[in-house]
């Protein structure tokens, strides 16, 4: 008798480009089926994120090759591609890890329904968060809009389950047609602005593990004290790995707790500070899930009438901000770091974002779009929620009167000027005393540093005190309800 052909399971990869702790992949393998892994290009990605995607996909494809299967790449509409593959290759079941943006949820729901109508089994899993957005609610049964009670509620739940191990062998199926990664041309070409990025980043599952181990073994104990310092390597730099799923938050959670135990609790404060940041990411996905238009619509709708500046002058100031030519060294250092590395230190992100929306009073959505295109870690949840936080129009937002002083921030968090000198080298010869505010330097110091104000380095495009006062007037023009909600 002819042996029945072994069933085929399709595993659809999205923001989970790893083999370890991948619930969808693990469930498919445990079903006993041969595996057809597929990635369908996300056309909405910004330029920097596409660069990271290229390298993460190359790493994932190599991991599959080493284990006996082949990652299939396709470009187009998942609603057409997946049913076609199901029919062509006798797929009996489809697996994926969930996404939480509105369009993704709508597509996944429709696809799941269509496949099940044809008799195909479909299962979806949580492969991206510690907690699903519907798991945590207030006592009133509503979604959390403030982080601290969200965090406490999360801690009250059972520990996240242990991460799943990567499979040693994956039985694939015969040759399946797909695209060549190089043909997608994901890496920037004109201009080739990512040429130096390989010296800063190692995308993929292996790179994520190396980065995490470096943090856990060398920087965890100091994390809570040093994470605000852009002049030192005090942050995890795992955000892009998390965004693409090179590593899971569940892995980081348990690895961190294990490290705290190995250190006999010495790194406990730093470890919990890091875990709190992982939970902040969960919180932002919670906001996105319950506010589908988070990237375009103010959570606090009273901000819909905020008097943003527009027109030629605002466009000129926006261009200066993008190019790191505002005349405020910490702001300019951050924007140049962003362009040259695809990343910006978290503290400096807050300063640069505050400068755009409060000093320049330019709509936060313009800044969000720029970051979305230039950050390797650009995430629909984190990017949108954090911009709304800074602007004061989001959930758990910064108070309207909190306007970061880029001069004071530079002196506090880059006290020796290391960060500014690295990214704004044209003023690097100034004494540290004047580095945060070159216009305050005496002529002799400027001359000695080879600086001609307005030529070698731009004069400030706005006066800090005047811009702050104008921003406060603009914010106070809103209703008291809005301001109380933001305070």
Can you describe this structure?
There is one protein chain. The chain is mainly α. The protein folds into three domains: 8-127, Rossmann fold; 129-161 and 205-290, Serine Threonine Protein Phosphatase 5, Tetratricopeptide repeat (Alpha Horseshoe), CATH 1.25.40; 301-486, DNA Cyclobutane Dipyrimidine Photolyase, subunit A, domain 3, CATH 1.10.579. It has helices at 23-30, 47-67, 78-88, 102-117, 147-156, 205-219, 223-226, 239-244, 249-262, 268-290, 312-323, 329-341, 346-359, 364-374, 380-391, 406-413, 418-423, 432-435, 443-448, 464-476, 480-486; strands spanning 8-13, 34-40, 72-74, 91-97, 121-125. Strands 3-2-1-4-5 form a five-stranded parallel sheet, sandwiched between helices. Strand 2 (34-40), helix 2 and strand 3 (72-74) form a beta-alpha-beta unit.
Summarize the entry for a quick read.
The chain has helices at residues 23-30, 47-67, 78-88, 102-117, 147-156, 205-219, 223-226, 239-244, 249-262, 268-290, 312-323, 329-341, 346-359, 364-374, 380-391, 406-413, 418-423, 432-435, 443-448, 464-476, 480-486, and strands at 8-13, 34-40, 72-74, 91-97, 121-125.
Main features:
487 residues; DNA Cyclobutane Dipyrimidine Photolyase, subunit A, domain 3; five-stranded parallel beta sheet; 5 strands; globular
What is the number of beta strands? Answer: 5
Helix coverage percent of residues? 40-55%
- Residue ranges: pLDDT <50 for 5 or more in a row? none
Task: Please summarize the sheet with the most strands.
Answer: 5 strands, parallel
Q: So what's the oligomer here?
A: single chain
How many helices? The count is 21
Structural class: mainly alpha
Structural domain tally: 3
The CATH top-level class label of the largest domain: Mainly Alpha
- How do the strands of the widest beta sheet line up side by side? 3-2-1-4-5
């Amino acid at each position: 008798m002819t042996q029945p052909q072994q069933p085929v399971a399709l595993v659809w990869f999205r923001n989970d480009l790893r083999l370890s702790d991948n619930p969808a992949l693990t469930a498919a393998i445990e079903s006993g089926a041969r595996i057809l892994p597929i990635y369908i290009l996300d056309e909405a990605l910004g330029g920097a994120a596409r660069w990271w995607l290229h390298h993460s996909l190359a790493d994932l494809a190599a991991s599959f090759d080493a284990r006996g299967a082949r990652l299939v790449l396709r470009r187009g509409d998942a609603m057409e591609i997946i049913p076609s593959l199901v029919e062509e290759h006798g797929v009996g079941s489809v697996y994926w890890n969930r996404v939480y943006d509105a369009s993704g949820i709508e597509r996944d729901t429709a696809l799941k329904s269509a496949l099940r109508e044809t008799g195909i089994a479909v299962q979806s899993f949580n492969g991206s968060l510690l907690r699903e957005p519907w798991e945590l609610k207030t006592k009133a049964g509503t979604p959390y809009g403030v982080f601290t009670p969200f965090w406490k509620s999360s801690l009250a739940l059972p520990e996240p389950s242990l991460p799943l191990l990567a499979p040693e062998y994956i039985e694939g199926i015969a040759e399946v047609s797909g695209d060549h990664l190089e043909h997608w041309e994901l890496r920037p070409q004109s201009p080739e602005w990512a040429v130096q990025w390989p010296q800063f980043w190692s995308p993929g599952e292996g790179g994520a593990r190396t980065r995490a181990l470096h943090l856990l073994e060398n920087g965890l104990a100091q994390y809570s004290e040093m994470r605000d310092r852009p002049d030192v390597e005090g942050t995890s730099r795992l955000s892009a790995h998390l965004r693409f799923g090179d590593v899971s938050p569940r892995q980081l959670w348990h690895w961190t707790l294990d490290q705290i135990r190995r250190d006999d609790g010495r790194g406990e404060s730093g470890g919990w500070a890091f875990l709190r940041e992982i939970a902040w990411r969960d919180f932002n996905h919670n906001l996105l899930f319950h506010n589908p238009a988070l990237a375009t619509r103010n959570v606090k709708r009273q901000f819909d009438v905020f008097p943003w500046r527009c027109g030629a002058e605002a466009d000129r100031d926006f261009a200066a901000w993008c190019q790191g030519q505002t005349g405020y060294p910490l702001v300019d250092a951050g924007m140049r770091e962003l362009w040259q590395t695809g990343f910006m230190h978290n503290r400096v992100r807050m300063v640069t974002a505050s400068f755009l929306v409060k000093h320049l009073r330019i709509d936060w959505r313009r800044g969000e779009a720029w970051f979305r295109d230039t950050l390797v870690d650009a995430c629909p949840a984190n990017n949108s929620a954090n911009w709304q936080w800074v602007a004061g129009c989001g959930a758990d937002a910064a108070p309207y009167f909190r306007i970061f002083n880029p001069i004071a921030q530079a002196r506090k968090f880059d006290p020796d000027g290391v960060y500014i000198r690295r990214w704004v080298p044209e003023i690097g010869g100034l004494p540290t005393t004047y580095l945060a505010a070159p216009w305050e330097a005496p002529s002799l110091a400027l001359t000695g540093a080879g600086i001609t104000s307005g030529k070698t380095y731009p004069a400030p495009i706005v006066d800090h005190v005047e811009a702050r006062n104008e921003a406060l007037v603009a914010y106070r023009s809103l209703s008291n309800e809005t301001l109380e909600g933001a305070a």
